[in-house]
């Protein structure tokens, strides 16, 4: 739906169309716009293909409709309209000269009829005249909006999906480096919890120079696997597979088997190198060098990251570099990958991403790019505007109901909602926030419920997450103790404390309730308790309205009165309605806008209610009356 | 003051300048911008001349400042910075190659000093280095905002002025057509009331064909002077003076004498003709013709205005027509006129006005154009954006406090306040609204006080206004009975009911109080009475804060509690302050935000208070304690 202010000097009748086309087509499609009030017009066009559409608005003065409207007034006032009919006939004849074929003859005939019959012209003929004159309007003086606007149509998965991140290195037997074959065994576990996307950190050979040891120590022992983000060794670079994980053939097979389990594999694109990367030897011109000839490693002074060297995106050979990096993405697309999580895009030039994403999506509009830019908001927004399908958010650091409501209200409304699709992660391999470190299992459960119901897209880094791994490397740090970034870990997937069942249940609700598959209807509601956050999501037709209430106090039971805007949610003002809690199956009869909710975090830190539009019979009350 | 979001990928230091230039100059002036928070930067430039300025923002990554910032961190961490000093020296040497003359040598020397002395470099030298490196930054990769924005600097009179409209035809002895010489006698009366601008309806020869008689009757008698808007006869057109008023020489003299009385003369530009206008004979191609060869007169079907023919602005000879109309404006500028009230600009093409105003103001930026477009808001806004200095408003039809607050809040805030300067008219020769017809003298007084204090620019059509002429042609009409548009009128300027004294007093307050000379600080305040409207205007430094309270009930005394935002107005929370009513001279001691106001419409329908920042001594209370 598109709205525009359309007006001209004077009082003539206007006409206005919405023009749109898919980027792959040179042909514009037109649909009429209709006036609302105060010179505002509205039109619609339907997108049917993935990719980029451009659209604009064109308007013109319509002398025939002006004439027609004035004629009616003259006739009503009993004026002599002979000359006016002649003026109209000439307008029709002028239109005939703009037309080829039968319609030209029709118009000429209609002009004659207007002269001869005038106001006695039959209604059908008058209607035909109006239709033809609208179709062949003189648009030589038409005005277009000065810009061609764009709308990008992405695959549904860009809007809605549950992500699961894991380190393949830990998928093997205890103490043995995991392989893609091992990882195949983990697929039923992940898909069983209802995830849609399985995201793997970089799978490439890892550099040896300055390799980091356990807990990010400066010297690694020979058995330390190193950080997967230190990409490249004599075994290959961004287009190679770490031999410890298997072969490229193993990877392709893994992608296929994952697909059979309903899981799309997402890869990490980290455009940086270890000092051992073949690029460093083959293309020294793609890197910065210091005055002593040494290559410039990554740093954030005074911190140094000597296992990583960044590309010089402004090198004189930038064309070759950019082309090579595009070919990396294309290489993995060719292996069957359609989803990429882009590491630190904000440290590379905006034009680079705009170009790369544009190039990829022109041929493969179904490819999804997730931006891992934990940086200033305007930079995140810019990345979203230039083409990223999704973006990480500050969710991990928004822990109180007030913070949550502020932040997600901003993200779910225009202008931000017009260009940015948030992806909510309660944890990542880099982020174990204080709330999780302190709160234990109830905190993990609460953060999970928030992520999965606030965000149509969300993800967890597991099994650390579902096993409630909350130990930090040191006090005040958000780094994990014994992080998988630097070592193998063995996880007890069958731990009785696992959140597996809760995750499975909530992911099922996400699939069953279209309200949870979009962010644009998110709306927060007062709870009269600073530890309770309450919000609804709904479908446009209000056939699915889901209320989530989460207790962020991981220690104590909290209760409050949730106040809902009944009219906006399609709930009745004057009779009872049913609140069906979906995790427990409990059905409550609620009345009016204010209703009581009580949440004990030790059982489940949140409740998810679905509303039926109306309680239809007394039978519905039986559950607990 | 200009703000911009300025950011780049990565974490490098940025620099940013505001670039501006007057349209007459090719040279850009630059002033530095400074960062606020959240990637927002702010800068300023000062306008010193009338006319159009363009401005934009340019930003770039500053490697030297990035290096400098990082160096400080490295030194603080005790790292070896020998290589970093070399990197810095090379940056300085690169800058030296971009520079001519002494500064090049200075930079080369500083690069050497950096190498040799390093961190031991004296502070003065370090400062010189930073200054020179900022001056000669490498801006080859700088990015400019994609648009050049414009700001138009208009004469002060475009913002602030009191207008008085009158018909010269009524300035003579009773029953005798007035002349410019007669009108000179009226100047002390008008300037004595404190008006700044004297606006005259068209002064050109008036057509005879289809001339309108008294009260707009279709047939005029030979003694009827006709409507001044039916311009042109065998005596001349838009560049001629109606002989009944005098000669062109008389007009020039009148403009000069008016100036001596402190009055600027504004003329009416009505681009339309009587059928007798010389243009009709000499340039038939500038008009539309009907199929029978007759010229197309003005109409709004079913209404016909046969004494007026409009120009065809889309004629094939539009270039000649437009040029001729421009020459009309230029002709009157050459006679000493600098202010024009443009009749019905919304019925002529937008591009025509944009071109005409642009052409006039390029050479004469002190010329002011007032748009008389009583039409839909977006059309009025468009005319303001394309170059009109001021616009008439819907003031005449906003009569309740609620309507007034809604409408003038919209006009006095961005976006509208950024491009439109309102001019408030309680009446015009075309508009005698119902409120005035019914309310009598108190209604006229109330509407006057509202216009003169709500609007930095306002005007009245007199003497009809100050003599409280409230008789309509017929019930339900906004036309005056015995309108001066069609006949001479004799006015008793010395009537005891005249609002002359009130007008004189209020215009004096307008000149004394800078708060009343701007619209941007207008703010409405609650009164707890639906007949009382209260609002303040203030200077930026709050040294002048003026509160106006008007009773719109012309029959009864109304009282209420006015609630003021003390902090915003610089009024004390914790002690009394003085409210000085400027029309009566009464001084009240007010306390806190809520204070009592009572207004009897039969004495004065409004009160105008000025606040001193603080009651300085007990002495100030003496006036009435």
Features:
homodimer, 625 residues, alpha/beta, eight-stranded parallel β-barrel, six-stranded antiparallel beta sheet, 14 helices, 21% strand, globular
Structure in words:
2 copies of one chain form a homodimer. The two termini of chain A are 46 Å apart. Chain A has an 8-stranded parallel beta barrel. In chain A, strand 21 (523-525) and strand 22 form a beta hairpin. Chain A is globular. Chain A is built from 14 helices and 28 strands. With 625 residues, chain A is α/β, with parallel strands linked by helices. In chain A, helix 12 packs parallel to helix 13. Chains A and B meet through helix 1, helix 2 and helix 10 of A and helix 1, helix 2 and helix 10 of B.
What does this entry show, briefly?
By secondary structure, chain A is of the alpha/beta class. The first copy, chain A, contains 14 helices and 28 strands.
> Which structural class should the secondary elements of chain A be placed in?
alpha/beta
- Could you tell me which chain pair has the largest interface and how many residues each side has? A-B, 37 and 37 residues
Low-confidence segments of chain A: 619-625
Largest sheet of chain A: 8 strands, parallel, barrel
For the largest beta sheet of chain A, what order do the strands appear in spatially? 9-10-11-16-17-18-19-20
Please identify the oligomeric state: homodimer
> Rg of chain A, please?
31 Å
In whole angstroms, the N-to-C terminal distance of chain A is 46 Å
Let me know the number of strands of chain A. Answer: 28
Please bin the fraction of helical residues of chain A: 25-40%
- Tally the helices of chain A: what do you get? 14
Shape of chain A: globular
Name the beta content range of chain A: 15-25%
User: Would you tell me the overall average pLDDT of chain A?
Assistant: 95
